[in-house]
Amino acid sequence: MLGIFEKLINEHGSSTIQKERIQLIKEQYEDLERKLKTSEEKNILLKKENENLIIENKKLKRDFYFDGHVYWDRVSRFPYCPRCYGEDKRIQMVVMDTDTNGALDGYCCLTCGIKHIDLP
């Protein structure tokens, strides 16, 4: 008779343990679903960012030539500093430095401050 009660107690205990385990598995599954959804959303954002960077990279890979003083963009025809463009691997536009009469005097880089062309 005690064996029957012991068996009943063990089965009842086992069902409680199984219920707890099933609940834990459900919670873990829901957590994994949330992480998957977050990862998928992040993946979409990263793909968009990558597409934008590819487009930006293509814009930056313009055709430049060096005239002995500054780099020139063949498309925009803007001058770029050879020091900043060449050494720092960045493209910094140089601006016109004018004399007191307002005439073009040369080009001076905004970043490094070096004057690259002295015009007559």
Describe what you observe in this structure.
Strands 1-2-3 form a three-stranded antiparallel sheet. 8% of the residues are buried. The mean pLDDT is 76. It has 120 residues and is an alpha+beta fold. It has two helices and six strands. The protein folds into two domains: 61 residues; 55 residues, no CATH class. The longest helix is centred in the N-terminal third of the chain and has 59 residues.
**Low-confidence parts:** none
| DSSP helical segment count | 2
Strand proportion, as a percent range, falls in 15-25%
Cα shape: rod-shaped
Strand order of the largest sheet: 1-2-3
- Rg computed from alpha carbons, rounded to a whole number of angstroms: 35 Å
- Number of separate structural domains: 2
Query: Secondary-structure element sequence?
Result: HEEEHEEE
Percent of residues in helical segments? 40-55%
Average pLDDT reading = 76
Which structural class should the secondary elements be placed in?
alpha+beta
Largest sheet: 3 strands, antiparallel
How many β-strand stretches?
Answer: 6
How far apart, in Å, are the first and last alpha carbons?
117 Å
Summarize, please.
The protein has two helices and six strands, in the order αβββαβββ.
Key words describing this protein structure:
alpha+beta; 19% strand; 2 helices; rod-shaped; 6 strands; 3-stranded antiparallel sheet; 120 residues; 2 domains
Topology overview:
Elements: H1 2-60, E1 64-66, E2 71-73, E3 79-80, H2 82-86, E4 94-98, E5 104-109, E6 115-118
Antiparallel strand pairs: 1-2, 2-3, 4-5, 5-6
